[in-house]
Amino acid sequence: MTKLENISMIKEANVYFDGKVVSRTIFLPNGDRQTLGVMQPGEYTFDTNEAEIMEMMSGELEIRLPGETEFRTLNTPESFNVPANSSFDLKIKTVTDYCCSYIKA
């Protein structure tokens, strides 16, 4: 999906890692929550409370998901799932555009 219709958005930005990762929270008409953001080059570890689907829209990056020992290259656009109450590591090589969907339990 490249265009979102009839959404509501929280104005305040979510800012992480000294401003190198910034996103906005949106709500879809059915109440589902997503964040749309941009990551600058760097290495990041993200912790999750809820299960997530991460859609990497553009950029060059490597990922290491829970249970994996090595980083692997993602070929954008590509998505991956992250379990609740876990963490994952990213090595962002170029500016990367993403959408995170939170999975209701």
How would you describe this protein?
With 105 residues, the protein is mainly β. The chain is built from no helices and eleven strands. Strands 1, 2, 3, 4, 6, 9 and 11 form a seven-stranded antiparallel β-sheet that branches. A four-stranded antiparallel β-sheet has the order 5-10-7-8, with no helix packed on it. It comes from Sulfurovum xiamenensis. Its EC number is 2.4.2.1, 2.4.2.2. This is Pyrimidine/purine nucleoside phosphorylase.
TL;DR?
Catalyzes the phosphorolysis of diverse nucleosides, yielding D-ribose 1-phosphate and the respective free bases. Can use uridine, adenosine, guanosine, cytidine, thymidine, inosine and xanthosine as substrates. Also catalyzes the reverse reactions. This protein is mainly beta and 105 residues long. It has one domain (8-103): Jelly Rolls (Sandwich), CATH 2.60.120.10.
SSE layout and pairings?
Layout: E1 8-9, E2 14-16, E3 21-27, E4 33-39, E5 42-47, E6 51-58, E7 60-64, E8 72-75, E9 78-82, E10 87-92, E11 96-103
Antiparallel strand pairs: 1-3, 2-3, 3-4, 4-11, 5-10, 6-9, 6-11, 7-8, 7-10
EC number: 2.4.2.1, 2.4.2.2
Function: Catalyzes the phosphorolysis of diverse nucleosides, yielding D-ribose 1-phosphate and the respective free bases. Can use uridine, adenosine, guanosine, cytidine, thymidine, inosine and xanthosine as substrates. Also catalyzes the reverse reactions.
Organism: Sulfurovum xiamenensis
